[in-house]
Specification:
The chain has two domains: about 50 residues, Homeodomain-like (Arc Repressor Mutant, subunit A), CATH 1.10.10; about 140 residues, Tetracycline Repressor, domain 2 (Orthogonal Bundle), CATH 1.10.357. The protein contains eleven helices and no strands. Helix content is about 80%, strand content about 0%.
Length: about 200
């Protein structure tokens, strides 16, 4: 079997697992279910992934790339500073509203169901940071703030945004989509003002 064919078969397993996660959640992702959807025997899956968590984390990596691409494509042109930070925060929120199963996978599933490596879980935790880091640096340079204040504010912003999403997805708020996006703006503006 050549390398191109191997990558294609690996891609079938990855696509099947991502479809299951999106449509039914992580609980239905098993070697048998993924293999059946991919059209191969479950033993074949282990030729491409060391275990089911290896496959799941490959899905996570793809989903993170999709999130980055979504945010990049959703950003309006010619904005910077505070408006750019607000726009990224809104786009990130829109992505997860569009794909709530991915939010659940990233932030509500137990870590040991996704990966055995702590560094893999750190990659999920740093996704939002990677999207807003340059925006925050631009704001900090304008305001001439200290690194300590900046890192505390950036952490507050990330935690508040994810808290808002958790409330929204768990029906703990009375927000519709428009109200959710407004809350994201309010929290982001508040974080900026604390600098």
């Amino acid at each position: 079997m050549n390398a191109i064919q191997e990558e294609r078969i690996k891609g079938y397993f990855l696509t099947a697992a991502k479809e299951l996660i999106r449509s039914e959640g992580l609980d239905v992702v098993s070697a048998r279910n993924v293999s059946e959807r991919a059209g191969y025997s479950y033993a074949t899956l282990y030729n491409y992934f060391k275990d089911i968590r290896d496959l799941i984390f490959s899905c996570v990596e793809d989903f993170m790339a999709e999130c980055r691409e979504f945010v990049a494509n959703d950003m309006p042109g010619n904005i910077s500073g505070e408006e750019a930070l607000i726009a990224v925060s809104k786009s990130y929120t829109k992505f997860f509203v569009q794909y709530p199963g991915i939010f659940h996978l990233f932030f509500q599933e137990k870590a040991n169901k996704i990966s055995t490596a702590k560094s893999n879980m750190n990659a999920i935790d740093l996704l939002f940071d990677s999207l807003v880091e340059e925006k925050w640096k631009s704001i900090v340079e304008q305001k001439k703030e200290t690194d300590k204040q900046f890192s505390q504010t950036q952490e507050f912003h990330k935690l508040a945004l994810h808290g808002i999403l958790l409330l929204f997805f768990n029906n703990r708020s009375n927000w519709d989509y428009k109200a959710l996006i407004n809350q994201v703006r309010v929290v982001t503006e508040f974080a900026i003002k604390t600098l």
